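Lipoprotein (Enhygromyxa salina), 364 aa
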Amino acid sequence: MGGLSRLAALGSISLALAGGCSEELYEPNVLFFGEWIYIDGRDRSPEETCGGTFAYVDAYAGALAAEFGVSEQLGAYRWYSRDEYDAELPCSEVSACAFVEERIAHTPLLPHEHEIVHLAEIGAVGGACPSVLAEGLAEFYSAYSRDTKADDFELLVGRMAQPSGLAYEEYGILGRFAAYLVARFGLEGVLEVCRTTGRYPSGAQLSAALESVLGASTDELLADFEPELGACNEGERYRWRVFGCGVGEAAPDLGRVSQDREHTIDTTFTLDCANEVTIGPLGGKIWAAGRFDVDDEGVYTLWIPESAADNPEVELRIVECEPCGRPQYGYIGDLGSIRLDAGRHSIELHAPADFRGDVRVTID
């Protein structure tokens, strides 16, 4: 991925659990009022983002609301210009944050799904999760998550002993551990731990809550989790694609495929920042996303025909909606086989921010 990567653009992020700051009253500059979130621009205008970004942020918020069991709007997404963000410093020294009492996410980036996850957690448990769980869930349910490695396990051990703190280098291992907890106990189990501990437990209090709610202490969970760090440590694998895979079914439905070819997919993505389906730009990229279902496990033919819009940096990603799904990639001009398991799959098409054109994708 050329230029500034999206992960690098995200920088350090935080859930402000101490009640936030006392803001001066001001008239919001509401750029978009959606079903699940509204976007308040500070020195920002709609022309600075692609035509589909606002709707995507709202749909992503809706997908998270369904996942977290929240039935009302999540709150405000305050989108700053870089100069305005640096002048106001709404999150002090960190590059983005979400305040609990105000239910406001503050960020110079759009979209910034990590902060929307915090708003969903606030809606579900009032921001009661200690940092070790809150930031882990935000990484796990984000659209872009940090990688981790086996050596980071000691960071997790130390943080579980002091669960209300946080260091930048811990985000990846916290996300990977959250993926483990949700896969084993379900999201509701993790949220019940948060309801039990509150925002600022000691390590001993967190361990007692884990044992009471999940049936295993911190030491027991860590001992069970450590062997899993040999695989699925990339953020692209451990994160849950809630937009394409979640219970809210937020992503556009592209149909289904079957081995008997009764069902096939033939769709065209029109990537153009001016249209109503393109998301971004962020980190030098624009993208579109959807979902599809596979009736039968087997080998299918993936074709991305060459066109006038040929660009080697246009990348298709297909991922099975299962824990630790492995992305499969395709590029313009590809014609080949792809093995797909039965069930739901997420599909995303990424391109450079200045790309304009149609990309046809067929699976049969």
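The two ends are 29 Å apart (CA to CA). The CA atoms of residues 136 and 308 lie 43 Å apart. ok done for today
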